[in-house]
């Protein structure tokens, strides 16, 4: 049977303080979190990153929360490890090196990565090579700090590089580090035509983090606000041998911005039935 543990996440809480979010998780019996690296919760552009990390650690300690995964914002922010602009690519690598240092300081076992994206009017393979080079460098640096990395396939509208199970298999092979795991995002999987069964069969123990999200099939919605078969997928996951953390990623369409706790009140009882 699977070993899955629910962890909190601050997605949709970015209009609230870190203390408010931490309190909301602790009150729901959550003990560890995926920390989305977006200001005001985690500002990876802070001049004094040590002070920023100390502030976060003090807040989380107050609510007895640990960090399972540091997830730097890398779609909204001007960050792209596959950028054709070498200055932007170098800045992006440095951004993730800073994130790895934060993960080490917060004693997080994982740093969350994506492939970046290439320009639509350039050869895909050129962007792929830049992505592999950047990710290999970031993975090696994180590993030197005792932090393992996770790679998440993105939807096609977000990236033209790692979208499918086949894509992430190739990326893992080219990076060549067994320590690198995979994040399974149910919306991305559905949008890209991959089933949960395909993820389990082909990636197996490399799946180390799961974002269980509803959609139509996209949208990153709270449980029940879309039409994806989340119950059936949770059954598949629960009957597998996957050992992973599990959380929600409710970006949605802005509907949760003023009441992010509603996402947890909808989804948490549903997920806990399978654990």
From TrEMBL:
InterPro entries: IolE/XylAMocC-like, Xyl_isomerase-like_sf, Xyl_isomerase-like_TIM-brl. It comes from the Bacteria. Keywords: Carbohydrate metabolism. SUPFAM superfamilies: Xylose isomerase-like. Residues 25-268 form the Xylose isomerase-like TIM barrel domain. It holds the Pfam family AP_endonuc_2. PANTHER family: HYDROXYPYRUVATE ISOMERASE (PTHR12110). This is Protein FrlC. It comes from Spelaeicoccus albus.
């Amino acid at each position: 049977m699977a070993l899955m543990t629910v962890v909190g996440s601050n997605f949709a809480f970015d209009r609230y303080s870190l203390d408010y979010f931490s309190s909301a998780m602790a009150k729901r019996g959550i003990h560890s979190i995926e920390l989305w690296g977006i200001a005001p919760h985690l500002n990876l552009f802070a001049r004094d990153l040590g002070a920023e990390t100390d502030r976060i650690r003090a807040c989380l300690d107050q609510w007895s929360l640990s960090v399972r995964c540091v997830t730097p914002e890398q779609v909204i922010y001007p960050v792209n490890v596959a950028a054709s602009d070498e200055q932007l690519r170098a800045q992006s690598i440095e951004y993730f090196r800073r994130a790895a240092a934060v993960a080490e300081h917060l004693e997080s076992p994982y740093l969350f990565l994506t492939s970046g994206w290439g320009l639509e009017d350039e050869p895909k393979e050129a962007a792929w090579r830049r992505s592999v080079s950047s990710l290999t460098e970031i993975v090696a640096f994180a590993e030197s700090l005792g932090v393992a990395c996770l790679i998440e396939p993105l939807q096609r509208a977000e990236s033209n590089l790692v979208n499918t199970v086949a894509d992430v298999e190739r990326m893992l092979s080219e990076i060549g580090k067994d320590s690198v795991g995979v994040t399974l995002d149910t919306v991305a999987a559905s949008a890209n035509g991959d089933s949960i069964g395909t993820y389990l069969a082909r990636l197996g123990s490399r799946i180390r983090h799961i974002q269980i999200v509803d959609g139509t099939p996209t949208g990153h919605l709270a449980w029940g606000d879309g039409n994806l078969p989340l119950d059936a997928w949770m059954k598949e996951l629960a009957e597998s041998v996957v050992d992973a953390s599990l959380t929600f990623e409710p970006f949605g369409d802005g509907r949760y911005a003023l009441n992010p706790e509603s996402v947890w009140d909808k989804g948490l009882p549903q997920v806990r039935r399978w654990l």
